[in-house]
Write a structure and sequence with these properties.
alpha+beta; two-stranded parallel ribbon; globular
Length: about 80
């Protein structure tokens, strides 16, 4: 699935959020720390917002040493 437009349908938002959450969950359970780079440049501001929200949610829900280290975009 490729989301390249600013307007994201509710279905695409759910799919993107679910994919990002599950990917982050897998990494955090393996005690990986991750940083997000380039989602806004490759997709859109809205896609980046959805991904970061999913990463933050996973970081809060998954105990351990893994987690979200940050993002390359500062607003």
């Amino acid at each position: 699935m490729s989301i390249t437009c600013i307007n994201i349908s509710p279905t695409d938002k759910y799919i993107l959020s679910d994919l990002a959450f599950n990917k982050a969950k897998t990494l955090f359970e393996a005690e990986c720390r991750i940083s997000e780079f380039g989602t806004r440049r490759r997709r859109s501001f809205k896609a980046q917002e959805i991904v970061i929200q999913a990463f933050v949610r996973a970081s809060r829900e998954i105990p351990g040493k893994g987690g979200l280290a940050g993002t390359s975009n500062v607003t």
